[in-house]
Each structure stands twice: as C-alpha cells, then as structure tokens.
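Appendix B, Record 12. Input sequence as logged:
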Amino acid sequence: MKITKVCCQGCGADLEVDEAIRFVNCNYCGAKLEVIHDATTTHTRLLEKLERQTGEMAEDLKVIRLQNDLEKLDREWDREMQGFMVTGKNGERSIPSAGGSVVGGGVAIVFGVIWMSIAGSIGAPGPFVLFGLVFIGFAFFGMVNGATKANRYQGAQRQMEARRRALIGEIERAKR
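Logged structural output:
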C-alpha cells in the first residue's frame, strides 16, 4: 500500500491517498475529487464541476431533442396539409373551406335547377331534363365532400397546434 500526496482542487489542501483509491472527499472543504494516477504524476480533478457541466449538457441535449421534435412536427404537418389541399380551376392549390364548398355547391345546384326548368319548358327529351338532376347530385356530393374535408382539416390543424404548443412549453421549461 503506497500513500501519495495530492492537492485538493477545491481548496488547495494537501491530502494523502492510497494509490488504489480512485475517488475521495476532501477532509477540509468536502469537495468530491477524482484521483488520477498518470505514469509520472498523481493529481486530482474536481468532480462537482464535471457533474455540473454534465448536467448542463444533458439539459442542452434535452432542449435540442425537443427542438428537433418541433421541427419534425412542422415537417409532418406540411406533408399532411398537402393531402387536405384542393386544386382550383387554374391549378392553384388552397386550403379547403366549408363556406366555399357550400357556396360552390349551391351555385351548381341552382344551375342544375335552371337547366331542368329550361329543358322541361322547351320540351327537350327526358335525358336532357334528367341531366340537370345528375348535375344537382354531383353538386350536392361535392358540397358535402368539400365541407367534410374542410372540417377534417380544421380538426387536424387544432390537434397539431395543441401538440406544437405543448412542445414549445416543454422547450421553455427545459431552458429554465
């Protein structure tokens, strides 16, 4: 058993340690020390500083992970939002609206009714009159489908915004 003199990195006090000892507490200041046995020297390193740095790094890593989760959520929402978008007559893409679907469907239904009344009043054959009814059916289906799609989009958007707010709250708490 070989005893070695080392210096405490916390208060500078001289300590005597066995060469087999790896960790020690200073008898004077209570600092936690790691005893490092190199080929030529034996010295100490203050562990509390390392523990504090490790804790800070762990907190920083948590914030980075949460920020990555937030960016992933935003990317996933962009992809999901593309699935909800509707294409206009000129190829422009937009977010569906229940009001727009109802108005568009209403206009198409009115057109179908006008078609049927004009075709019936001029004595057109039955299939021409029934074409207006088919037109009204497609208009009604498009109106209901568009309104449903708009409602699903709004529900998905609310859900995403709630997850986003929760992640931002976690990031803010982790930064404190």
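Residues 126-175 form the longest helix (50 residues).
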